[in-house]
Every structure is written in structure tokens, then in C-alpha cells.
Write a structure and sequence with these properties.
Blueprint lengths: L8 H23 L8 H11 L1 H21 L5 E8 L8 E10 L6 E10 L16 E9 L8 H68 L4 H33 L36 H8 L1 H23 L3 E11 L13 E10 L5 H68 L5 H35 L11
Antiparallel strand pairs: 1-2, 2-3, 3-4, 4-5, 5-6
Amino acid sequence: MRQGPIRADGWLTGAIFLAALFNNATAAASEHSLAAPLQPGEVLAASEVHFPEILDALAKRRGAEGAVLAADGAFDLVFDADGFNRVDGFFDGSVVQGRATQPLGPLGTNIYAGYQLSDGDFPIYENEFYTNTGGEFKAGLIFSLLRDRAFDERRFERKDARLAREQADFDVLLTKIGVQQQALIGYWRWVTAGRQLYVYEELLQIALDRESGLQEQVDSGARAEIFLVENRQNITRRLTLVASAERDFQIAANALSFYYRDENGDPIIPVREQLPEVGPVGEFEILAVSIDSVATTALALRPELQMLKTAVERAQARIALADNNLKPRIDFGAEVSTGLGSVGEGGSSFDSTDAVVGFQFEVPLQRRAAKGQLRQQEAEVESLRQRQRLTADRIELEVENILLDLNVAENLLLLAEQEVQQSEILQVAERNRFASGASDFFLVNFREEVAANALIQYYTADLKRRSARADYDAATVDTERLGITE
């Protein structure tokens, strides 16, 4: 029994609903036709300024700068004053005195200058308070001959704070490199997802455009109804591909918004109208690089090695401090004092210019604390040097692998380009054969999907080489390509 014409009402209802998803893109395009294409430089500029991890590293660097200022405070000029006045008793002496002290770095020196003024009588055990009527001026210095001569706690703190600030600078750079690398890869993943979506939409549009023509041919008896069923099956399959591609594109857009932020630091989800224009297949920037001296350059620039080098310097400074604490202390001092004005209550013996020299000697007998610290820091230096060596070896291997990956990815893109061209030739030839009746509908659909998959593979190969180049730029600290401005 011959069946009647195929009824497609139920199928069309579902297809129209699914196709609406596809057509939404066209409607959105008209509303956002003025949206400027998003460039990688915009993403890198936004992430460098607003990404929280970078802001965290910058805050830590400001903290390190504050520590430097605090360490410098150990060498601040200090003024102190004191005095007393006897309000009752046999003696009525009163005195006020002040002194300014300036610590210096060399020889652990402290210089000072002071002024003292007294009035009234003092007991004999306080007669050092007597001054002339105009007071007494004194100045002196104290410096070290052994312990604290070349290095001391204050100079260690200042040097350690500066080295810690250097480490913070390298940490900021390291953080920026990692963030910008991922932002760049995220951008190209978004672009690739958008281009793949375009490919599947174009493939779907071919099947949709073919539907009306096939319907007319089936109605006229020129084609069997099975062709219409097969085309609708293709539409359903391609709608599924478009839906999956839209999902992947939205996921990529959400991932990119993690780095692409506005002036307030809030994520911006890019829309498809911001996708850059798709250039012709085969027109692309060459990203491969030569291998000459790349590893050596990378070793000289990598912040990880610079941070370890600075850590070694900090440990060596602690060794110098521990070595300093093993030495005996011999401090030498000299002071000059002179009376001002006329002779006061203390008599003429206090009306003179005096010069005094003295010393202080101290020797630690067991010195176990200093010895233990010295051994601890020597072991730390050796550990850091081994980590330096391991990191350098890892970086050399990493750069070599990235170079290999980059150059192979470039070659794979060339092969993918050839496959696109070949599949396009076959697709056009198959359509011509089908139009002349020498081919069947299955082969036409097959050639169309092979050509689409070849284009997808081409875009995927381009993403791989751009990701490899981002890895290479990060490995060689190419701040310009990573959009790092400071």
C-alpha cells in the first residue's frame, strides 16, 4: 500500500524551536553591529591593571617598601631630654639636659651632641650635674672595632628589607607573567570557540537552505521523499552541533571575563559581536622562532631564578650577622665638653673644656646561639643553591619543549590549511556531481561535514600554536607580547 506524503508538522515545530536558537545570533548581531572587535591587547591591559592576583602582589610589594622605610628608621636622628627639680630638702639643685644622637652605618658609629643646664646646689654624689651659668655643651662618638664593625643588626635589617623588596618586585613580575599568559590563552580560546560556532552555523544554514528546494522537488516527484527525511536528519544533527558550539563559546566567554575586567575590576563577559574578523585560511602571523640562545636568555630573565638568587643573598646576610655575633665587642668612644657662660655654683673646676676617651670590652664565652645560627644559615644557602640548579635545569627543559611544541604546531597548521583546501575542492566537486545526478545525497552531506571538520581542525591548530607562543613568551619573559608595561 502506497503511503501518503510525509507530514512534517511535528518535526517542523521542534526544528523551528531549535532554529530559533540559531537565528537569535543574527538578531543580536543587528543590535550590536557597532560593537568594536575585542583585541588581545585590551584583555591584557585590563588584566594587568585589575586582576586581583596582580593587585595582591602589588600590595605585598608596597608592604615590602614599608619594611624598607621601617628599617631605615633605625638610622633616624633621635632627640631625648630629661631633667628634675628638688622641691624640698637641704639641696635645691635643678637640671635639664637634652641630647641628639645620629646612628651611622660605617663601624657601627653613633655620634651625639648634648646640652645641660643646672641651677642650685647638688650633693657630692650628683656633682656631675653642675654647669656654668650658660650651661655645658658636649659632643662625642662611639664606634666598634670588632663586633658590629663591618655588620650589625641595624645594617642587617636594612639590607634584608631591601632584598625582600627585590623579591617582592620579582614576585610581581612572576605573577603578571602567569596571569597575562593565561589571559592571552583565554582570549584565543574564546576566538577559536567563536570561529567554530560560525563553522557549525554555516553548515546548518546549508541544510536549512536546501530544505525548501528539496520540498519542491519531492512535491514534484523529482526526488524521493527519503532525501527530505535525510536532510531533516542533517538539520537536527547540525542544530545539535550548533547548540554544543554555543555552549562552548559561552563557557569560553565566561572564562575570558575572569581576566577581562572593567575600571571597577568587575568581570566583563564579551559577546560574539566582539569577535575579531575571520581572515582567509592560510593568512596568519608566523609565530615559530629559532632555537639560538633561547635557553640562555630565559635563564637570565626568569624571575624564579632571580628570587632564588636574592634569597641566597638574604641567607648570606644572616651568615654575616651570625659571624659578627661570634666576635668579641670592643667599642671605642671619645667625647668633648665645654662650659658656657660664667662660673656657676659648682665652682671653677667645672669651668673647663674636657676631652675624654674610653672603651668597652665584651666577649661571649660559649657563643652557642651564634654558632647554631651560623650553621643553620650555611645549610640554608646550600639548599637554595641546589634549588637554583634544579630550577635552571627545569627552565632549560621547559623552554626546549615549548620550542618543539611551537614549531610543530606551526607545521600542523600548515597541514591543516592544506586539508581545508583539499576538502573544499572535494566538496565543490561533489555538489556539482550531485546537481548533474552523478552523485547521491549522502556523499554531498559527507563532503560538507568533512570540509567543516577540516576548518574546525584548522582553527584548533591555530589555537594550539597561539597557546604555545603564549607559553614561549612567558618562558622567555617577553613583557611586550604579554602586555606587561611595568
